[in-house]
Amino acid sequence: MKIGELSRATGTNIETIRYYERIGLLPAPSRTAANYRSYGDAHRARLAFVRHSRDLGFTIEEIRSLLDLSDHPERDCADADRIATRHLEQVEEKIAQLALLREELSRIVGRCRGGIAADCRVIEALGDHAQCESAH
Amino acid sequence: MKIGELSRATGTNIETIRYYERIGLLPAPSRTAANYRSYGDAHRARLAFVRHSRDLGFTIEEIRSLLDLSDHPERDCADADRIATRHLEQVEEKIAQLALLREELSRIVGRCRGGIAADCRVIEALGDHAQCESAH
DNA sequence: TATGCACCCTGTATCAACTACAGGGTCAAG
DNA sequence: CTTGACCCTGTAGTTGATACAGGGTGCATA
């Protein structure tokens, strides 16, 4: 498989594949006579693992740990669960934070009745620090 | 006000204040004889506006537009409402996306019963692309 | 007077996770 | 024989800061 095919097979940008290789997330594949990268099915599976993990929001370093575990099936897998659990907590935290943010934005938005900026409640709300504090 | 005082007054890192000046978000203040930056209350208000906007997740470019409106009170403020409304939509989209993510992470997490990585459901779930697809 | 300390200055490098070229090589079809 | 699709390396840019290195300033204290 050439890099373009791997790219299509996994929905990953070609530049991103080369980037993953450069940072050591994917092993360097063998090369053809023309110095083209040549991938096999193991590469495809590993890249799919990485993409799926990235889609779930794991960082590259977390994925490194997860791949390391995946490469050493005899090891204790408690780490994997720990990484995933912590990540889930972070996601939940982020959701809570965005929900607060949505509250405040909702209060700000839609209060502009087409006037001039001098009377704009949106601009006013952004400048007014007290309004933010008292709202919480 | 010296930069350290402005920093404490607005809860903004000193380096960040200088960064905002460098990218033209804050006007360059006058200097003391010793070449120290010297801020007034207008600077403080403008920085508070920026910080509040950043806390709400507006990008620097959006803040530039909002500040521009704030600087020209005679202009139509429909833009401000448009920027805030679009941002609210983006926040809502992000929340929805993170909620989906939380679903999948919840399914993955906690299935590890302390065995070895070979049997780990977390690792398995990450590698298994089909499981992800079918789940949606 | 010296000296220590907190504060300030500029300029550049670093972070995450990519993405986007520039400038060149390879290969098959028309 | 040339056009086009594909591949290569290496470097620079993105966002929103943050972190020095290497130096200057200003005030209190020994």
Automatic annotation (TrEMBL), chains A, B:
The keyword Transcription applies. SMART domains: HTH_MERR. Keywords: DNA-binding, Transcription, Transcription regulation. The keyword Hydrolase does not apply. InterPro entries: DNA-bd_dom_put_sf (IPR009061), MerR-type_HTH_dom (IPR000551), MerR_fam (IPR047057), Tscrpt_reg_MerR_DNA-bd (IPR015358). CDD domains: HTH_CadR-PbrR-like. GO terms for molecular function: DNA binding; DNA-binding transcription factor activity. Pfam families: MerR, MerR-DNA-bind. SUPFAM superfamilies: Putative DNA-binding domain. It comes from the Bacteria. Residues 1-69 form the HTH merR-type domain. This is Transcriptional regulator. It comes from Sphingopyxis witflariensis. The lineage of its organism: Bacteria, Pseudomonadati, Pseudomonadota, Alphaproteobacteria, Sphingomonadales.
